[in-house]
């Protein structure tokens, strides 16, 4: 038999040839950078810079509003399209009322960032876990379980408060049934029909959230979140969740985490034909940082390969703590 005429290595011979036929491309315009904004860091003698480092997430800090504005400016200068805000309030209570306070930490940060950087997208995480004294994502019944419908009303109220403050997109992450429809109705009723919803549609109950719970001070005081976040074993259910969110009015659907759920990203993209976001979560970030610090991995190569895999799986948007570094690397 003659040697085959097809030689796939021909197009791998040089960087220019490889670039010419590359199927999946990375751009800073595809990344969203998450930020943690904390009440009380302004003037805190323990953190005179307005930044509080997060031990489990090297390179990521909790920020004062002033520092969040500065960080947002850096994000914009790197060509990233937006930030995703999480808030740490002054006080917590049973229902998480700080979440919808017009002068709450996310609302203040949103107004300040939009005033300073009007073209940068501000996406707000809409949930109650950072604001409740029990750490769960909604209102609790007497038996300690989360009351879905009572929680949905509070979550919709929070989304409206964020949109009034100037949020470009609201992103409900609680995984309550029906919350996307309730948020859409509440926004429309308040004259905010142009505010899009980025729904955490398939948010799994994952071990990869550990560092985030330190960062956002949002670990449950008891129990866990498996009663409302998804079982990692269920792919069909993830597609159903995404399709339901689309029916209820979601403009973007999300899969979280990303790396252990690349198959789910692809399935959700194929099933919905919607813009799909994937969240490259705190544990995924922390593992790479730890391995790189120990000399086990090349951080730059690992991060860019990881982000390429998430994009190749079907994600249009990648929410990642690596966003600033990746944007710099892509410039070089």
Written account of the structure:
This protein is an alpha/beta fold. The chain has one domain: Aldolase class I (TIM Barrel). The protein is built from eleven helices and ten strands. It has helices at residues 15-20, 65-77, 105-116, 148-165, 179-189, 210-216, 235-248, 262-272, 282-293, 299-312, 323-331, and strands at residues 31-38, 51-53, 61-63, 82-88, 121-126, 169-172, 198-203, 252-256, 276-280, 317-320. Strands 1, 2, 3, 4, 5, 6, 7, 8, 9 and 10 form a ten-stranded mixed β-sheet that branches. β8 (252-256), α8 and β9 (276-280) form a beta-alpha-beta unit. α2 packs across α3, α3 (105-116) packs parallel to α4 and α7 crosses α8 (262-272). The longest helix is centred in the middle third of the chain and has 18 residues, at 148-165. The chain is globular and about 75 Å long.
In terms of topology, how is this protein built?
Layout: H1 15-20, E1 31-38, E2 51-53, E3 61-63, H2 65-77, E4 82-88, H3 105-116, E5 121-126, H4 148-165, E6 169-172, H5 179-189, E7 198-203, H6 210-216, H7 235-248, E8 252-256, H8 262-272, E9 276-280, H9 282-293, H10 299-312, E10 317-320, H11 323-331
> CATH topology, what is it called?
TIM Barrel
At the first level of CATH, the class is Alpha Beta
**Average residue pLDDT:** 95
Portion of residues within helices:
25-40%
Low-confidence stretches: none
Structural class call reads alpha/beta
Strand content: 15-25%
Work out the oligomeric state of the chains in this entry. single chain
Number of domains: 1
Per CATH, the superfamily is Aldolase class I
Rounded radius of gyration (Å): 20 Å
Q: What is the overall number of helices? A: 11
Please give the largest β-sheet. 10 strands, mixed
Specify the CATH architecture: Alpha-Beta Barrel
